[in-house]
TrEMBL record:
PANTHER family xref list: DCTP PYROPHOSPHATASE 1
UniProt xrefs under InterPro entries: dCTP_Pyrophosphatase, DCTPP
GO biological process, one term: nucleoside triphosphate catabolic process
Pfam families: MazG-like
SUPFAM superfamilies the UniProt entry points to: all-alpha NTP pyrophosphatases
UniProt protein name: Nucleotide pyrophosphohydrolase
Gene3D superfamilies: MazG-like (1.10.287.1080)
One Gene Ontology term of the molecular function aspect: nucleoside triphosphate diphosphatase activity
Length: 131
């Protein structure tokens, strides 16, 4: 178990929270993700603009930490190897969204590369029932 996972397990165990139902943790991840999203309500600032906004960055750090802590809570209690699942998923995503195709459009979109190519691949996968 890695350092952060050990710390999370200890934090849960000390509080008697080491028997939480996974559904409750999933709900909490979603609730905290909504709190993170709320920070961006009615704004559309760029990455650089956001990084310069110290107040916003403080709020983002707080809510992102909440999301990550609940995500690690779930992983630790279900004995999931976070390093392994992240690496496996990254490999899947790399294949699903080839870098050459995504990079081609990312600069023009000044964002995620959410171009027609990205959406086409995503929608094809959804139609096939893949994640
Ligand atoms: Mg929160």
């Amino acid at each position: 178990m890695k350092k952060i996972e050990t710390q999370i397990y200890q934090y849960l165990k000390e509080r008697g929270w080491d028997n939480l139902a996974p559904a409750n943790i999933a709900k909490s991840i979603s609730i905290e993700a909504a709190e993170l999203l709320e920070i961006f309500q009615w704004t559309n600032n760029s990455l650089e603009e956001t990084k310069k906004d110290t107040q916003k960055m403080a709020e983002i750090k707080k809510e992102l930490a909440d999301v990550l802590i609940y995500a690690f809570d779930m992983a630790v209690l279900l004995e999931i190897d976070t390093q392994k699942i992240i690496e496996e998923k990254l490999e899947q995503v790399k294949k699903k969204y080839p870098a050459v195709l995504m990079r081609k459009n990312a600069k023009a979109q000044s964002g995620s590369g959410a171009s027609s190519e990205y959406l086409k691949i995503k929608n094809d996968y959804r139609r096939k029932g893949k994640s």
